[in-house]
Design brief:
homodimer, 213 residues, alpha+beta, seven-stranded antiparallel beta sheet, three-stranded antiparallel beta sheet, 5 helices, 38% strand
């Protein structure tokens, strides 16, 4: 299908198609708070690793619309949390995307959790989560989206899912992947490989089901 | 774990930890070509949806290092392809990350495929793929990475994985997710939900295993 054919598609059909074709995504609840202390929670999938030294994470925000508070909160308070959605919480996570007038925590049934000195709420039900401070805000004029680069200040994960070299097995932690605008994917198995070198086939790494060498 | 503790970790340990904590990722082979016509292929995970109208996709490139040609090629020719990694191709996909002096296509055993008038090579073994032209290049000075925004020019996917509303089921297409620096994840099941509204629990959508309403 060409650009011209894509452009000719009905709007919602095109949205579903293009959102699913970019591949699987992170799937996180973004916790934030406004300057009056009202907590907000919204499901996000456009999250990506920018660097490990310093630890930086990027989040792409859609153009602001009525009822969307996350970006305004991040700009006001300079911090937010990312809480990866675990298996079994996908329905509630999806429900946060409704245009609630009250806080999504109470509305859909997630529990806010706070760290001293860090205003944005974490989600108690999510075993893998991070707290971030805004390091840079980059507008993307092409379509009105905004890239927020966050500096990682706090991380939490189940210790028994961490492998000896620092890798955290998100499948063992029960974390889901996102796909499209409304898809929640179960990950059943992770294979890792050794550092790749020319002329030497990569070998399985770690203790997962794919590891035989 | 706090920012200070993360900063104190050994470099490779921190890289594994931070790369895995951002959640599951797209997993694609980025095809490009230099001005002499030499094709290049490299595995990428920092790929995200920027918009559907016009269709825009973002790819984050790490700071250039010897033996890395993808970003230079994209800047030279203004185009590239993204080819999602299917189950069974993960070992070859990983092997493209070695510092080959020859083209990765021949070295690891993928087949380049060309469209008339579009110089960047597609990967014949990948059922879901897209061809893009560079729309904007955004340097991220914080750590020397580069965000390339690509305009989608061509898309290919298996028709029998496309649902009636345009959603393409990547699990049915056998597409994998990425995790961390060297993890390849099998997705076993996708649940979709109806458009979220306050006061009305989201209902299962589509024909997948989660659909009962």
């Amino acid at each position: 299908m060409t650009a011209e054919q894509i452009q000719g598609l009905e709007r919602f059909y095109r949205g579903n198609l293009m959102n699913s074709l970019t591949g699987f995504k992170s799937l996180s609840l973004l916790g934030s708070v406004d300057s009056d202390g009202l907590p907000n929670l919204a499901v996000f999938t456009q999250i990506f690793h920018i660097g490990a030294d310093p630890p930086l994470v990027g989040v792409l925000f859609r153009p602001a619309a009525p009822g969307m508070h996350s970006l305004a909160n991040v700009k006001q308070t300079g911090c937010f949390t990312l809480n990866h959605v675990p298996l079994g919480s996908e329905e509630k996570a999806h429900w946060t995307s409704a245009r609630w007038t009250e806080s999504e925590f109470a509305a859909v049934g997630f529990t806010p959790e706070y760290l001293p000195g860090f205003p944005a709420p974490f989600v108690a039900e999510c075993p893998v989560r991070m707290g971030l401070c805004t390091a840079e805000i980059i507008p993307i004029p092409l379509n009105g989206t905004t890239l927020v680069v966050g500096r990682v200040e706090h991380i939490f994960f189940p210790e028994d899912c961490r492998e000896a070299d620092g890798f955290v097995n998100l499948a063992e932690a029960g974390i889901m992947a996102g796909t499209g605008l409304d898809g929640y994917a179960r990950v059943s198995e992770i294979r890792r490989f050794t550092y790749a070198r020319p002329g030497l086939r990569p070998q399985p790494l770690g203790s997962g089901p794919g590891a035989d060498g």
